[in-house]
Amino acid sequence: MEGVSKSFGAVVALNDVTLQLPAGQITGLVGDNGAGKSTLIKIISGVLTPDSGSIQFLGKPANFASPADARERGVETVYQDLALAGNLAVWANLYLGRELTVGPKFLHVLDKRSMLSKTSEVLSRFIRNVPPIAEPVELLSGGQRQVVAIARAGAWGSKLILMDEPTAALGVAETKAVEEVILELKRRGLTILVISHNLDQVFRITDGIWVMRRGRVIGYRGKARSHPDEIVSMITGAAASAGASE
Ligand SMILES: Nc1ncnc2c1ncn2[C@@H]1O[C@H](COP(=O)(O)OP(=O)(O)O)[C@@H](O)[C@H]1O
Ligand SMILES: [Mg+2]
Prior knowledge:
Blueprint: E1 2-8, E2 11-17, E3 26-30, H1 37-44, E4 52-54, E5 56-57, E6 60-61, H2 67-72, E7 75-79, H3 90-94, E8 101-102, E9 109-110, H4 112-126, H5 142-154, E10 160-164, H6 172-187, E11 191-195, H7 199-205, E12 208-213, E13 216-222, H8 228-236, H9 238-245
Parallel strand pairs: 3-11, 3-12, 7-10, 10-11
Antiparallel strand pairs: 1-2, 1-4, 5-6, 8-9, 12-13
Bound molecules: adenosine-5'-diphosphate and magnesium ion (MG).
Adenosine-5'-diphosphate is lined by residues 8, 11, 13, 31, 33-39.
């Protein structure tokens, strides 16, 4: 994205933001509360329209008008409070909005047998321990649900997955399971942007990190050439003020 700005009334959430996401990599996006991270993801995913600036995806203009528009081009989003339907079974969630039917399309006769048999296959591409696919999602643990939400985002020909704090509500073991799914998405060639407050996690799973502060991009650091202390000082502005006082 290039020169993207977005204000809410007097609040400048994004101020002339320019950044790139390397294809096939996991990129972290970090910054303090209110830095503009969620706004940035909502703009890429078509939830919000930028006031100015442009976005390109795979060499083509990508100012998506809606999340459905983004999804059609292979851009999926996973939020912390995930968008699974709790009363529906795992398989029904996987196929939500993409139901398979038998017979003439207009009759909308669901092909439950095909969906059931393909759900295990699709989920096992990404998940080692597939949860019971006939169970309502609300019976699964938070970690299992998030794993299903991410695997669903990775299915259906997706190319870019955006994640806003995917493990914020999870315990240690559940977080590890979610991180494994994220790494599997990368192994399968997807490009990933993940917002996280957990710098240990960012250094565990990402290849590089964009840092934001107060609506602006402060910089990018390749993971191998950086250190959590450096990222913290970029987040807080400690480095900038130290430089300014010299
Ligand atoms: N829908 C909205 N209406 C008004 N202000 C908003 C809205 N969304 C975000 N903001 C403001 O924009 C700024 C950036 O928010 P956000 O992108 O959520 O930051 P982050 O995700 O980094 O915590 C904050 O000051 C926030 O209060
Ligand atoms: Mg946020």
